[in-house]
Q: What sequence folds into this?
């Protein structure tokens, strides 16, 4: 059976499979907690951008990834500093099952997005309480332009 068949109609799982095909992601599972960690590499991280919008950190994702990212019921976010040679933005879901999933138990999921060390340091002093996430586009200069209204605002931990 192919991995695509296993992913079924879950856009997030299909997205992870596509990233895996180009070595842009690592997936780990913790047998004690059941948490699934999707850890993006540098190439996977380039699909995201970070900016400040209305005083909040805003994590943007490219339009072609919108369905995959928005399929997951993200519940919290964290900014993680000075972890092995990078900073990270982590999105967490207490239960990543889709409404159509037949799984009995919740499936906790974390998505780790690498960020160049120091890129998030301004947020250490501000200590924002929320992270906005939503689609972004790139302007003619290749700079990220965030959507006027984010998809979701998540409670944020800064550590």
A:
């Amino acid at each position: 059976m192919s991995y695509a068949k296993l992913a079924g109609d879950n856009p997030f799982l299909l997205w992870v499979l596509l990233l895996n095909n180009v070595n842009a992601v690592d997936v780990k599972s913790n047998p004690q907690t059941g948490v699934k960690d999707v850890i993006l590499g540098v190439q996977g991280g380039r699909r995201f951008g970070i900016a400040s919008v209305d005083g909040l950190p805003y994590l943007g994702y490219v339009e072609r990834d919108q369905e995959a990212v928005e399929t997951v019921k993200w519940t919290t976010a964290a900014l993680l500093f000075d972890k092995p040679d990078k900073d990270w933005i982590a999105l967490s879901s207490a239960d990543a099952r889709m409404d159509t999933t037949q799984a009995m138990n919740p499936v906790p999921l974390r998505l780790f997005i690498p960020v160049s060390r120091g890129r998030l340091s301004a947020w250490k002093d501000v200590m924002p309480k929320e992270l906005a996430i939503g689609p972004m586009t790139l302007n003619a200069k290749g700079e990220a332009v965030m959507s006027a209204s984010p998809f979701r605002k998540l409670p944020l931990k800064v550590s």
Remarks:
- The radius of gyration is 15 Å.
- Residues 74 and 111 are 10 Å apart (CA to CA).
- The helical segments are 3-7, 11-21, 42-45, 66-71, 122-126.
